[in-house]
Automatic annotation (TrEMBL):
UniProt superkingdom: Bacteria
Gene Ontology molecular function terms on file: acyltransferase activity
Compartment(s) where it occurs, according to its Swiss-Prot or TrEMBL record: Cell inner membrane
Pfam family, one: Lip_A_acyltrans
Protein name, as recorded: Lysophospholipid acyltransferase family protein
Spans traversing the lipid bilayer: none
Organism: Mucilaginibacter ginkgonis
Keyword Transport: no
GO biological process entries: glycolipid biosynthetic process
Annotated Gene Ontology cellular component terms: plasma membrane
């Protein structure tokens, strides 16, 4: 009972914060940066190790610069996400420029479904809200449920505010089977770490063997859905662009792992372009592939 009351109080406080202008919230972000980076040192060892392994060619000074930029952006991401609880549709539209949406509409109008691949890059939560505005066809956001009940409730309401349907990762196959006669666009965050028991395939990503989900490829080939990549750029503080890059229009004709390796490569190139906007504090490389038996 006490935990639920505290959770409700936190949620209420976050909603009050979200009513503040972003300009004010960015001042809070500047303070959070000092606390997070210098005072608490939140996961600094994790970030340092991830950056060093991903960019062995960079000097320590270059890696430190990326790290500081990352923490500054992480704090911006926190306050921007809070703002999304009450941000208007018009404001969301203004803050994310979309390119090549005509291709999406043409594909959906032809009766084909789309699988859109992105990563934890830029403000993916803002991108999820923007998705709800781009078409009248069924929009699905595939997500991993949060164990905390209060947080799960808040994020579910926020992500579905403008018409997108949230589907847990474990339920997406059943959902797409039910909608097989209806063109849909489903968005997957591709850079989550599978549990060890589900790490059946490793590919080279950011200079190291990386376990990746094969679900995107399996679903694309099963339903012959067009695969696109969401290429995100941070234009300036609080403003983004997203270009939908077609990858495969006939997935059934691809070789095994071709879809997986291709969307992972596109994510890698996007990260290399401006690395500070990826989620470096995530423990992405929890385990390595098992050595082959001699």
């Amino acid at each position: 009972m006490i935990k639920k009351a505290l959770a409700s109080l936190v949620v209420f406080f976050l909603y009050l914060l979200s009513l503040l202008p972003l300009a004010v919230l960015y001042v809070l972000s500047d303070v959070l940066y000092i606390v997070t980076y210098y005072l608490i040192g939140y996961r600094r060892k994790v970030v340092a190790e991830n950056l060093k392994n991903s960019f062995p060619e960079k000097t320590e000074a270059e890696l430190n610069t990326i790290s500081k930029k990352y923490y500054r952006y992480l704090c911006d991401l926190m306050v921007e996400t809070i703002k999304l609880l009450t941000m208007s549709q018009a404001e969301v539209t203004k803050r994310v420029d979309l390119y090549n949406t005509a291709f999406l509409e043409e594909t959906l109008a032809s009766g084909k479904s789309i699988i859109c691949v992105n990563g934890h890059y830029g403000n993916w939560e803002l991108g999820a809200l923007r998705l709800g505005q781009i078409t009248n066809h069924k929009r699905i956001i595939v997500y991993k449920p949060i164990s905390n009940e209060a947080a799960e409730s808040v994020f579910t309401r926020m992500r579905s505010r403008f018409g997108a349907t949230l589907v847990p990762m474990k339920s997406i196959l059943r959902t797409l089977v039910a909608l097989k006669n209806e063109p849909t666009i489903s968005v997957f965050v591709s850079d989550q770490t599978p549990v060890k028991e589900e790490a059946h395939y490793f590919t080279q990503f950011l200079n190291q063997p990386t376990a990746v989900f094969l679900g995107i490829e399996k679903l694309a080939t099963t339903f012959n859905s067009t695969v696109v990549f969401a290429d995100v750029r941070v234009l300036k503080r609080g403003y983004y662009s997203c270009t939908f890059v077609p990858l495969f229009n006939e997935p059934k004709q691809t070789a095994q792992y071709e879809i997986t390796n291709t969307h992972v490569h596109h994510l890698e190139e996007m990260i290399k372009r401006e690395p500070q906007y990826w989620l470096w504090s995530h423990r992405r490389w929890k385990f390595k592939p098992e050595p082959a038996n001699a």
